[in-house]
Amino acid sequence: MQSEAVGHSGRPVLSVRDLKTHFFTGAGIIKAVNGVTLTVREGETLAVVGESGSGKSVTGLTVMRLLGRTTARVMGGSIHFSGRDGRNLDLLALSEGEMRQVRGHDIAMIFQDPMSSLNPVFTIGDQISEPIRIHKGLGKKEARTQALDLLRQVGISDPESRIDAYPHQLSGGMRQRVMIAVALACDPRLLIADEPTTALDVTIQAQIITLLKRLQVERRMAMIFVTHDLKLVGEIADRVAVMYASQVVEEGPVAEVLARPKHPYTRALLDCIPSRRDAAGNRRQLRPIPGMLPNPLAPPEGCRFHPRCVHAEDKCIATQPELEAVSANHQTRCLRWKEIAL
Q1: What are the φ and ψ backbone dihedral angles of 43, each rounded to 5 degrees?
Q2: What are the CA-CA distances from residue 52 to residues 194, 212, 225, 236, 294 (Å)?
Q3: Order of strands across the sheet that contains 239-244
Q4: Between vectors from CA 279 to CA 338 and to CA 274, what angle results, nearest 5°?
Q5: Residue pLDDT, tens place only, 26-67
Q6: What is the pLDDT of residue 112?
Q7: Contact at 8 Å (CB) between 241 and 317?
Q8: How far apart (Å, rounded) are the C-alpha atoms in residues 45 and 237?
């Protein structure tokens, strides 16, 4: 069952169903994404959360069709996108030429590291102008004018002097703002932000989160916000999907999932947040998650989380759980969620 968005009655912009993306390596097959189902509606922000290696970024890259030159193959599932003209596009069925018309125009992505994503030999003005010229067909002068406006929108001071700067001449926070400007250049219907604040200090991180929230509301974009930090989720998202070892283990409205998590992994992530307080206002004890993510070449039988779960029983080892409805808008992948008090 796929939950409906809370507070967003618009039609789905992106529908991912039972997506499977596998990497074929010399050591074996890595099932990086194994049966992921997600829906994002117009004007909604869905946070995708989990430890490094859980499949979050690969899910985003699969939606963008940016895994073509790797060992990855999509082995199953579907990705449907609602275009500007109302057409329902099957992204996995599009040719590369057709996908290029969608990528950067209707769907855009902010990558983790702007220093490696921005081209060091082109000015930031040229890099913001490029998608405008390609997708909107504007001339160089008109594209530059729009690039200046985008720099202002993302909070770059004195854009007239910055527009001819190269990436290495800007701070990390400014480079990240430039990446956001590039992504927003063609007013996309869907923005995928892949850990856009990971390499930034806390102050700049807060500024980027505030900026993304403002731009998302102003443009009524759908947004997928990929992060490993549950603390950020409550600040920016409407719904959250928690991923572990290539699967979604819990999904639902942010307020409900953070207040009443039904999967032990979600609770474990919450217990890793410093200074978190319980319902009575008492400071919770910081408890790291024991163990490590399973070997992606040989994931455990049954529940993927059972080797690290304090609630695991024999049935958790023997049976692989399916997503089960907790409520109309909340799902969890745990055999014991009704028995254990989280």
Answers
A1: 80, 5
A2: 12, 22, 15, 20, 12
A3: 107-110, 190-194, 222-227, 45-49, 239-244, 247-253, 330-332, 324-327
A4: 100
A5: 999 999 999 999 999 999 999 999 999 999 999 999 999 999
A6: 80
A7: no
A8: 5
Look up residue 277 and give its DSSP letter: B
Helix (H) or strand (E) holding 76: strand 72-82
Kindly list the strands in the beta sheet with 28-41, ordered across the sheet, starting from the edge strand earlier in the chain: 28-41, 12-25, 72-82, 88-90
At 125 the pLDDT is 96
Q: Which two tokens stand for residue 317?
A: 């080892």
Integer Cα distance of 129 and 139 in angstroms: 9
Pairwise CA distance, residues 267 & 57, whole Å: 22
Exposure string over 15-27, b if 16+ CB within 10 A, otherwise e: bbeebbbbbeeee
Cβ-count burial of 252 within 10 angstroms (0-12 exposed, 13-18 middle, 19+ buried)? Answer: buried
The identity of residue 133, as a single letter, is R
Q: How far apart are CA 187 and CA 162, in angstroms?
A: 22
